[in-house]
């Protein structure tokens, strides 16, 4: 029996049974909301559901964030995984005309480069994945930062992948200031990288505490398992409340043209969970369980490759955090897996480890072993 790891599963967190993962508390909350006779299906305000935006901001910056208290951070209820980037790019193109270039720094090829390109920006993409050391490389990150042109939009994909120390954060801020860069962060699945909600956004909280202005795309679909809703926010950190209100008022015009009304069902579910301490605790516990299971899968894959005597070191598999990671295979090895073993992974060999389970792990590790041995040299 052949095992199939399809690239189309690459963004969905899967269960051991091969189904999309959904926290149990999400199921229960969805049913409760659906049975609520007082539910109002009127259009939402242009900026979206206010309670949802507030709850999402507190998740990002912390419940007792000084920036939230000072009302210099706000948000727009966005659509899909790319809606926040669409809205942010449109605003920056009109109101920050000095920013001509967009520099995307990430461990992987990011989809939102096309959004900025279509808006007329010149897009540069930089990878901080070191293929020799098989890790995200802070040295490579700062080498990239030195070469980024001044007066650019700096897009950092999934900031937890950067793995920067406190001193490196300070160095990054110095470069951003000296080059007059505008940061645009991406938080695609808070809590699914380390299992710690606050740890996954610590760099972001550091930025806002020092009074930086920036945009951040926060997707809440993956970490709640509401993939078909595509819900999140564009978080706006401004220098003052007055600046924030000016930005949000202009964004209302774009929202009316882009989507008019964001999806409400997922936002209601998420808001209910985030605002209820018992439900919030249950959701946090379920996230931790997913991350622990991912680490267990990675350990098993590494151990099976070791027992098979597969050439090379496979320690990089367990050093990577999050649902996705690189196997560290070259192109001929990936081609072998696809053509000979029908294991469909992208050319980069970056896979979704939640797609590996008890039913297919032996087949997959044996196939990786054969791919390495038979294409060696």
Give an overview of the whole structure.
- The relative contact order is 0.17.
- With 377 residues, this protein is an alpha/beta fold.
- Mean pLDDT is 92; it is low at 1-10.
- It has 14 helices and 11 strands.
- Helix 11 crosses helix 14.
- The chain has a 7-stranded mixed beta sheet, with helices on both faces. Strands 4-5 form a two-stranded antiparallel ribbon.
- Strand 2 (101-106), helix 5 and strand 3 form a beta-alpha-beta unit.
- It has helices spanning 24-34, 50-61, 66-69, 83-95, 113-118, 138-147, 166-179, 202-209, 241-258, 265-274, 277-308, 315-319, 331-341, 361-374, and strands spanning 73-79, 101-106, 122-127, 129-130, 135-136, 152-156, 182-187, 214-219, 231-237, 324-326, 350-352.
Question: What is the helix tally?
Answer: 14
Q: What are the secondary-structure elements, in order, as H or E?
A: HHHEHEHEEEHEHEHEEHHHHEHEH
Tell me what portion of residues adopts beta-strand conformation.
Answer: 5-15%
Helical content stands at: 40-55%
Largest sheet: 7 strands, mixed
Radius of gyration: 21 Å
Structural class: alpha/beta
Largest sheet, spatial ordering of strands? 1-9-8-7-6-2-3
Terminal CA distance: 30 Å
Low-confidence regions? 1-10
E-strand count: 11
Which descriptor suits the 3D outline? globular
Compute the average pLDDT: 92
